[in-house]
């Protein structure tokens, strides 16, 4: 293991040195900036380009269709209006109970501690989410605690996006201890894209904190393509297999990025090299600005049929859609129309 790379200051400096200028991104990859139509720049103003340099190094230079580049490069098509593609496709604003608390599923709820992400994914269903008005402060903890205690069925807290692993270890620890102090909570889930885009974030202090917790910890990472998992990322994730932390991956099916059975299969095999199991394969949420990533139902059905025929069952992600108002994610195989 290349220990020195896991130092805390390394990931912090990476987080404060993101690429945010589309021209810089394209020139770094030796690509022409001619494709930056004014629409793309406007799209970047609405939802800013944000990408760690380490993630850019995983992209293939000279390839304008690189599957990692397409996930982050603002595109003029984002400005097109499409019927059915809306700002809040999952009705999250309505489901917000208290600052940062989104409780839709019986036994578990989302707690958003920060609006910041290390990377901006163009397909993100929270790209229009009004985070700033909705973040819990220390003084809100007492209310969150009483809310949990009033809901006897809650046994799991899910830290979700914005990305909880953009928090410093000390802030993270503060919230971890608060959650640990409630006996009915048995599980802590951390949904984060940071271990994939800045693997150094899995530093010693964080891993120790998670290892020592009384909570049963699940880390759900987010990778959409095998190229996101270079050897260094695999090594960073594989450290966790020596702990009791369960590591899963979720992906979103995206046109032009991972819309072939071979791509999904390669991703599953690559994840398993780090002992990470595929969890969900999400059909795109219909968020305004992401219609150009949407796939035809027949394409999805054929892809999933092929994936099922090829992969061992434990490497097949569950194909799901989230439907606003439903009490769980909806399994889809054979039912997409
Ligand atoms: C996805 C999601 C969860 C977690 O659901 P699991 O099926 O347990 O992964 C919880 N709350 C909301 C609002 C979600 O969207
Ligand atoms: S919440 Fe997740 S999907 Fe959305 S921009 Fe942040 S990292 Fe990307």
Automatic annotation (TrEMBL):
Instruction: Give me the residues that bind [4Fe-4S] cluster, please.
Output: 117, 121, 124
The alphabetized UniProt keywords are: 4Fe-4S, Iron, Iron-sulfur, Isomerase, Metal-binding, Pyridoxal phosphate, S-adenosyl-L-methionine
- Matching PROSITE patterns: RADICAL_SAM (PS51918)
Start and end residues of each Radical SAM core domain? 103-318
By its UniProt entry, which Gene3D superfamilies does this protein fall under?
A: Aldolase class I
Name the coenzymes or cofactors required: [4Fe-4S] cluster; pyridoxal 5'-phosphate
Q: Name the chemical reaction catalysed here.
A: L-lysine = D-beta-lysine
Residue list for modification N6-(pyridoxal phosphate)lysine = 329
Provide the GO MF annotations for this entry.
4 iron, 4 sulfur cluster binding; isomerase activity; metal ion binding
**What family, per the record?**
Belongs to the radical SAM superfamily. KamA family.
Question: What is the name attached to this protein's record?
Answer: L-lysine 2,3-aminomutase
């Amino acid at each position: 293991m290349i220990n020195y790379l896991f130092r805390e200051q390394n990931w912090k400096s990476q987080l404060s040195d993101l690429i945010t200028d589309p021209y810089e991104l394209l020139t770094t990859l030796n690509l022409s900036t001619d494709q930056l139509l004014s629409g793309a720049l406007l799209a970047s103003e609405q939802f800013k380009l944000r990408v760690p340099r380490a993630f850019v190094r995983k992209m293939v230079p000279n390839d304008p269709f690189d599957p990692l580049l397409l996930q982050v490069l603002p595109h003029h098509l984002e400005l097109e209006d499409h019927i059915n593609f809306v700002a809040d496709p999952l009705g999250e604003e309505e489901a917000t109970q208290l600052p940062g608390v989104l409780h839709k599923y019986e036994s578990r709820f989302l707690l958003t501690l920060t609006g910041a992400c290390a990377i901006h994914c163009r397909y993100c269903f929270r790209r229009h989410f009004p985070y700033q008005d909705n973040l819990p402060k220390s003084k809100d903890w007492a209310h969150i605690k009483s809310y949990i205690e009033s809901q006897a069925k809650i046994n799991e807290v899910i830290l979700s996006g914005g990305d909880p692993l953009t928090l410093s270890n000390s802030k993270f620890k503060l919230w971890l201890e608060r959650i640990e102090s409630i006996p009915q909570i048995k599980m802590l889930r951390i949904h984060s894209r940071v271990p994939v885009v800045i693997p150094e974030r899995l530093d010693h202090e964080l891993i120790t904190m998670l290892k020592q917790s009384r909570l049963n910890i699940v880390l759900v990472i987010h990778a959409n393509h095998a190229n996101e998992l270079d050897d260094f990322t695999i090594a960073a994730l594989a450290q966790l297999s020596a702990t009791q932390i369960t590591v899963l991956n979720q992906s979103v099916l995206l046109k032009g990025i991972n819309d072939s059975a071979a791509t999904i299969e390669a991703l599953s095999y690559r994840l398993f090299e780090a002992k990470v199991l595929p969890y969900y394969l999400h059909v795109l949420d219909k968020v305004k600005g992401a219609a150009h990533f949407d796939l035809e139902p027949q394409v999805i059905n054929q892809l999933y049929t092929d994936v099922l025929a090829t992969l061992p069952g434990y490497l097949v992600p569950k194909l799901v859609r989230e439907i606003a108002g439903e009490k769980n994610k909806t399994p889809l195989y054979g039912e997409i129309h």
